[in-house]
Amino acid sequence: MVETTTIVMYPAPSIGHIISMVELAKLLINYKFSITILLTTGFLDHPSIDSYINRISTSHPSISFLRFPSVTVTHSNTQSLAATAFQFIKTNAVNVQSLLRQITAKTVINAFIIDLFCTSAMEIASAIGIPVYYFFTSGAAVLSLYSYFPKIHTQTTASFKDMAGVEIHAPGNAALNATLMPDPVLDRGDPAYWEMLYFCEHLSMAKGIVVNTFCELEDVAVKAVEDGACFPDLKRTPPSVYCIGPLIADAQQSDEARDNKDWLSWLDKQPSRSVVYLCFGSRGTFTVTQLKEIAEGLERSGHRFLWVVKRPIQNQLGVKQVHDTTNDFELGSVFPNGFIERTKERGLVVKSWAPQVEVLSHKSVGGFVSHCGWNSVLEGVVAGVPMIAWPLYAEQHVNKNVMVEDMKVAVGVEQREGDRFVSGEEVEKRVRELMESERGNEIREKSLKFKDMARDALGEFGSSTKALANLVQTLNEINH
Ligand code: UDP
Asked: Which terms does the record give in the GO molecular function aspect (predicted)?
């Protein structure tokens, strides 16, 4: 007999996506929903996922997690990481089916909220009659670009990676060089391209799309997704869009980072808004050559800095995209001789990880060199800290475009064609531009305005609060 109602969520197997989805769950339990989150096991498992799950289940008893049995996929160097990840998610379809059936036997599922990368689960849920929603963990501009991607796909037979100089125009987005499209769609020879096409074709089929952004931050892009401009060939009403952000995670610290508060006592001693904070997300890693250039640029800029440095990559392949929070490297070996000594009065280097949300909210932080991961962008916006946009992977070049061209909360770094190397001179120039120039001041003012707008969006009468209320109402109306 059916007794209770629940919402089931299915995040992609990446810690950032899981954390974001959990933040959405925390919002929805305030409206008396119970939430079940499905998690895969066996690929891209984060080392602290078990302790994270325990923490959330203990602090929020209405949120429960169901782990799938472990599934093995083999990742070879001839295949992209995205292709293997998508294959892994597809292989888990059988687990989704069996768990959804088990849950529906005892409970009404009001909605199945999935990550874009888990689209393979949509048909399974629809076949059982469960309404499917997306939770889009990036912003509205990327949502619009992805929704429009099936159209762009029909306009050329070439791979974006071979279309240097060709501009991509998607509704709600500034023009983007084709070679800067998100990684998984760059190459038609990569199975990930075709999977992404399949995912993006399904966006319009969802009952609704929940987006971690707020209307005032991305007004043009939000309009493009709300009025359906990004679904040009759609013959029916586009899915409802709910911009409920910014959702900022509050529990992202490794145990080690929580124990080490050197950065805090150091920041406490610095003048207000004087420190440039550099951090490149959970996966951004550089070669030693690139790290040395950053060090030289920072030193020459003369500005104070707090820099999170991950273990460098050993080859020249550019950016490594695995989660690596190991500390077993010597800082001295990755910097120019004497760098730490010469900058000790005005710089602090932290190995591997710093609690970013806390760092950004410190009054001494006056600038943020970011890899443009969407969570980092939102965290910078919420803290009102102006940024230097240095995109590395995934959809970060699109985010950079939005930050620099639309929001005007960042200056962008010039990256060399091909290997995307950034010189020390460029680092110095951009740090000075942000911290010393008139343009830097304008960007700082704009950032502070967005900080207020972000707070207002989440306030009692704010746009995100209204969007959440609309979402909750729709979820409550669903009755099988
Ligand atoms: N993060 C952190 N400390 C670090 C590196 C990352 O707290 O040293 C957090 C950051 O605050 C953000 C998340 O990890 O919430 C990274 O997500 P984002 O979307 O910015 O980038 P990704 O790691 O997914 O590329």
From this structure: UDP-glucosyltransferase activity
Is the CB of 36 inside a 6 Å radius of any atom of ligand 1? no
pTM (predicted TM-score) = 0.95
- Dump pLDDT digits (tens) for 312-347: 986 544 444 444 556 678 888 889 999 999 999 999
CA distance 116 to 206: 11
- CATH 3.40.50.2000 assigned to 256-455: yes
Residue nearest to atom 17 of ligand 1 (CA): 375
Angle subtended at Cα 330 by Cα 358 and Cα 352, rounded to the nearest 5 degrees: 25
Examine domains 5-249+461-476 and 256-455 and report if their fold is the same: yes
Ligand 1 near 374 CB (within 6 A): yes
Closest CA to 435 of 309, 303, 247: 303
pLDDT tens-digit map of 233-267: 999 999 999 999 999 987 455 555 556 688 999 99
Map out the domains of the chain as residue ranges: 5-249+461-476, 256-455
Which parts of the chain have pLDDT scores under 50?
A: 1-3, 251, 316-323
Distances (CA, A) of 336 to 293, 297, 332, 424, 461: 9, 11, 8, 12, 52
Pocket test for ligand 1, best of 138, 310, 375 (most atoms within 8 A of CB): 375
ipTM of the complex: 0.99
Other CB atoms within 10 A of residue 30 CB: 10
The architecture CATH gives domain 5-249+461-476:
3-Layer(aba) Sandwich (3.40)
Ligand 1 atom nearest the C-alpha of 308 is 8
* Binding site membership of 381 for ligand 1 (Cβ less than 6 Å): no
